[in-house]
TrEMBL record:
Species this chain originates from: Saccharothrix australiensis
GO biological process: creatine biosynthetic process
Superkingdom as given in the UniProt entry: Bacteria
Keyword field contains Hydrolase: no
InterPro entries in the cross-refs: AmidinoTrfase (IPR033195)
Protein known as: Glycine amidinotransferase
GO MF terms, alphabetically ordered: glycine amidinotransferase activity
Keyword terms: Transferase
Length: 358
């Protein structure tokens, strides 16, 4: 058995990393966050801060419950080492008031087959986030996994589009990108894996240089396919395009395809199902997560999914698709950066590399 092996989002899950909220901090404003805040927004002056201890404890209890629910299903669960992010740090190129968290391992590392890839993240405050996972990654390497870190970014002023805003012009990968092509940049959660085909949404933390770096590193065995959606400030694909099993995926009806990708899926006999609105759809209570956070689910196998307890309409949709649902309370975790998919990283799933598209 290969200790690390995962090629898609749905094969039976055997081992996973679940994040922790301990040591988390709220990011200070920095250039990578400019798309989310109008130029006159006072939040552009935010200097960073710790989370209230009671918020951390409530989120940690829900993360623990999530871990226990997976263990009851026979999944091996690993947890990162808590790192205190409430401290300033600097490199020769930038300095920040504090870091963020190790709640979302899906953002920091990309698993493709037996490879663990540490990614070059665009947010300065997340530069050292990989440190929380180093003990685990070294253990996986000792067990036979491949381990590589993409080029560490400099994150200088040249990395970011100067004076960026989406107030009057929507984010656009070609005409109005948030990032320059100064260096390769991407978050792992900007990609979703379907065997040999890996789909990537260009967004405010992922540029062409980063996509091309991953394409060349993975080589001809994989096809890295760009899909674009209409979104004011896209970040990560896992509340926009969510594969459930071969031939079936959820899509976000508020973020239609900008290209011909819908036809590409249809031509390959994939059914795209509109997700139902989240019960929390409306003005967001935090800019850390999407109003479509309900779509950020975790498939345990092609017939079983983990969904947030309050999302009754989505639960009913899954039942109509003949998918069993495990519910877990997770609303306290949202403000730390994500839901079930973001807060997990599948290390091993059953199954081998296959092609699900022509």
């Amino acid at each position: 058995m290969t200790i690390v092996s995962s090629y898609n989002e749905w094969d039976p899950l055997e081992e996973v990393i679940i994040g922790t909220a301990r040591g988390a901090g709220k990011l200070a404003f920095e250039p990578a966050l400019a798309a989310y805040y109008p130029k006159a927004d006072p939040e552009r002056g935010f200097k960073g801060a710790p989370y209230p201890p009671e918020d951390v404890e409530r989120a940690e209890r829900q993360l623990d419950t999530f871990a226990l629910a997976l263990e009851k299903e026979g999944v091996t669960v690993q947890r990162p080492d808590p790192v205190n992010h409430i401290a300033p740090f600097s490199t020769p190129d930038f300095e920040v008031a504090n870091g963020h968290a190790q709640t979302c391992p899906r953002d920091v590392m990309l698993v493709v087959g037996d490879r663990i890839i540490e990614v070059p993240m665009a947010q300065r405050g997340r530069f050292f986030e990989y440190r929380a996972y180093r003990r685990l990654v070294k253990e996986y390497f000792a067990g036979g996994a491949q381990w590589v870190a993409a080029p560490r970014p400099q994150l200088t002023a040249e990395t970011y589009t100067e004076d960026y805003t989406t107030e009057d012009e929507l984010y656009d990968f070609t005409t109005h990108p948030a990032l320059t092509e100064f260096e390769p940049l991407f978050d792992a959660a900007s990609f979703t894996r379907c065997g040999r085909d890996i789909f990537v949404q260009p967004d405010v933390v992922t540029n062409r240089f980063g996509i091309e770096w991953l394409r060349r590193y993975l080589g001809p065995e994989f096809r890295v396919r760009v899909v674009e959606f209409t979104d004011r400030y896209p970040q990560h694909i896992d509340t926009t395009l969510v594969p459930l099993r071969p031939g079936l995926a959820l899509t976000n009806p508020e973020r239609p395809f900008k290209d011909d990708s819908a036809k590409f899926f249809a031509d390959n006999d994939w059914r795209l199902v509109d997700a139902v609105p989240s019960v929390r759809t409306g003005p967001p209570t935090t800019r850390d997560v999407s109003n479509w956070i309900s779509m950020n689910i975790l498939m345990l196998n092609p017939e079983t999914v983990v969904v947030e307890s309050a999302e009754t309409p989505l639960i009913e949709l899954f039942k109509s698709l003949k998918i069993d649902v495990i519910t877990v309370d997770f609303d306290a975790v949202f403000q730390f950066g994500g839901s079930f998919h973001c807060c997990s990283l599948d290390i091993r799933r059953q199954g081998e590399l296959q092609s699900y598209f022509a």
